[in-house]
Amino acid sequence: MATVRLTNVRPWGGAAADVVMADDRIVDVVPAGSAASDGETTIDGGGRLALPGLLNVHAHVDKSWWGRPWVPAGGAPGTAGRIAHERAERDALGIPSVESTTAVLGEFVRHGTTGVRTHVDVDLGVGLRGIEVVRAAAAALGDAVQVDVVAFPQDGVMRRPGVLDLLDQAAAAGATHVGGIDPASIDRDPVRQLDGLFDIAERHGVGIDIHLHDGGELGAFQLELIAERTLRAGMHGRVTVSHGFALGELSPARQAEVLDVLAEAGIGWATAAPVRSAPLPWREMRERGMPIGLGTDGIRDLWSPFGDGDLLRVALGFARLHALRTDPDLLDVVRLATSHAGGYLGRAAHDLSPGARADVVLLDAENVQDALVRCPPRALVVAGGRLVQRDGEVLV
C-alpha cells in the first residue's frame, strides 16, 4: 500500500498531529513529529486547521452553464415557471455538457468537497444523457470527488408518460437514488407518484430523494405520506426530503407532530438554506436522530445565476438563517457539512479518524468557527488519499 503522511495539521483545531493514510483510508492519527515509517511520502500541513472533506448532499451539476458566457436570469417566478424556462432554453445552451459539468465538479474540488449527491435530470427530452454526462465529467477529474446520482424527474413523473420507465432504467443502470418532485402540486396525484417511485426503489434496492417545495399544510400532508410509504416499504433510513420548506412554516405543535412521524421513518433532510425560507427546527430534528445535510443546489443555471460551489459558504448561510452565534452551534453547522453527512454518500464514518476515507481539507484558520465565518481559501485538499488541490490549483 502507498502510505502518505500529512504532517503538522490541527484536526478540528486541536493539537498538532500527523494524519497517516494508506491507499484511500486514514490508518492513524498521531502526535505531530512522531517517527515516520520507511517509504512514507510526507506532505507538510504547515500547522493548518484540518477538516474532513466537505460533503455536498444536494446539487444539480448537470444543469450549469459554468464556464460559458453569462446567461441572464429569465422565466416566470415559481417552480412551474422555472421548469418551463429551463425546458425552453437548455438545448440552445448545450445543457447538459461534459465541459460545464466538469468545471463545476472542479470547483467543488477546489473548495474542498470530496463527495456529492447530485440530482440529474431524467425526462422525455434528455433521456438518460445527463447521467452519462455527469459520469464522464467525474471520470475527467479522475473521480477525485465521489459522485452519487439521483435520477431526477424535474418536469414531473405521472404527468409525463414514459418518465417512470426512464427512472426505472436509470436505477437499473446504477443510479443510487430515484427522485421525485412535489407529488401534489406538480403531478397532482401524490399517491400515484409515491407508489411509482417506491416500486422502482424496492425492485432495484436504491434510495429515494424527493424535492418538496410545497409549503404549509399541503407540504406537511405530503411529508406524512412520504413517511407512511417509507415505513410500509421497510425503507427506514433510505429516504431523503430535499428542501421541505413546509416544515419550518408549521406551528410548533404541528411541527412536533410531523417530526415524530418523520423520525419514526428515518427520513433524512437536505437543505441549501435559501435566504427567504423559514428556519428549520434543526435541533429538534437532530434530537430525534434525523440526518441533516447541506447542499449547494443549482450553480449558475437557468434557475439561478448564483453559486460558486463552496459548501462552506452554504454552511455559513445556514448559520445566518438560523441566527446561530455560539461556538458549539457554529461547530455543529460545520459538522453538518462534513462528519455528520457521511451517510448520504454511503459512508459508515466520515471524519479524521482511522478507518475513514482519507479526505482531508486544510485551511488557514484559527479554529473551526473562524473557518466558518471567513470561508478562507482551501490551502490543500486530499481525496481518497490523493492530493487533488494545492493553493487553489486543482491537480486532477
UniProtKB/TrEMBL annotation:
InterPro entries: Amidohydro_3, Metal-dep_hydrolase_composite, Metal_Hydrolase, Metallo-hydrolase_Enzymes. Signal peptide: none annotated. It comes from the Bacteria. Residues 101-395 form the Amidohydrolase domain. One of its GO terms (molecular function) is hydrolase activity, acting on carbon-nitrogen (but not peptide) bonds, in cyclic amidines. Pfam families: Amidohydro_3. NCBIfam families: PRK05985.1 (NF004636). This is Cytosine deaminase. It comes from Jiangella alba. The lineage of its organism: Bacteria, Bacillati, Actinomycetota, Actinomycetes, Jiangellales.
